[in-house]
Amino acid sequence: MRGRFDKQLEQLNDMLLDMGAHIEKAIAMAKQALLERDIELAKKVSKLEDDIDQKEKDIEGLCMKLLLQQQPVARDLRLISAALKMLTDMERIGDQASDIAEIVAESTPVLTQPQFAEMADAVIKMVMQSVEAFVKKDLQMAKDVIKYDDVVDGLFESVKVELIELIRADATSGEQALDLLMVAKYFERIGDHAVNIAKWARYSIAGRKKSEPKNSAG
């Protein structure tokens, strides 16, 4: 019985990695659509979001099966509950990648801030490593993700200052600047969700939470 349970836990890890890969792809596609002002590519992100939502449901189903059909010990319960909590943040990341793509599709803002590419690359790294930290039970990797959020926050503040100056210098660029500010905010939120995932990974490994995950906005 335990052998079957362990195999299902391995399946859970594989499914989480697969969902994480789809999320990373969605962020990367949204980034490319933004940088190249590719409306058709932006529209494809919403289809990928549907796939991510389905993967969330499939993983939830497996977690419920593990809880109901097996007799998990305390360590197993901690791991499964952490996975379920992670799912919420992973799904929201997919939503926010789609939100970025939607802004590109509707307004195609002219990009002037190089920090957008840096922010996208940074949050992709955070998402990938936060999920891997859970699967590999790598406590240091989880801690590194949490710490790296400072980089994303710094890039967001830099973009915000530049866009405010852009509005002051040219009031006609206000709408475009606001669109870009929303894009930056979505990237910043993705970083927050990656931090949440890393904290749940840390909880699944260490059995304790030093602090509650960041509030998930929007």
Number of strands: 0
Strand content: under 5%
Give me the strand/helix succession. HHHHHH
Please tell me the CATH architecture by its name. Up-down Bundle
Tally of alpha and pi helices: 6
**What about the largest sheet?**
none
Q: Can you tell me the number of structural domains?
A: 1
Shape: elongated
- The CATH class label is Mainly Alpha
* Chain-averaged pLDDT: 90
CATH superfamily: Phosphate transport system protein phou homolog 2, domain 2
- Low-confidence runs: none
In CATH terms, what is the fold-level topology?
Methane Monooxygenase Hydroxylase, Chain G, domain 1
Helicity level: over 70%
What is the straight-line distance between the termini?
41 Å
Structural class: mainly alpha
> Radius of gyration, rounded?
19 Å
Fold and architecture overview:
The protein is an all-alpha fold. The protein has one domain (3-206): Methane Monooxygenase Hydroxylase, Chain G, domain 1, CATH 1.20.58. The protein is built from six helices and no strands. Helix 4 (115-136) runs antiparallel to helix 5. The model has no long low-confidence stretch (mean pLDDT 90).
Q: Summed up, what is this model?
A:
With 218 residues, the chain is mostly helical.
How are the secondary structure elements laid out?
Blueprint (H helix, E strand, L loop, with lengths): L1 H35 L2 H31 L4 H34 L7 H22 L2 H31 L4 H33 L12
Name some characteristics of this structure.
6 helices; 218 residues; mainly alpha; single chain; elongated; Methane Monooxygenase Hydroxylase, Chain G, domain 1; 0% strand
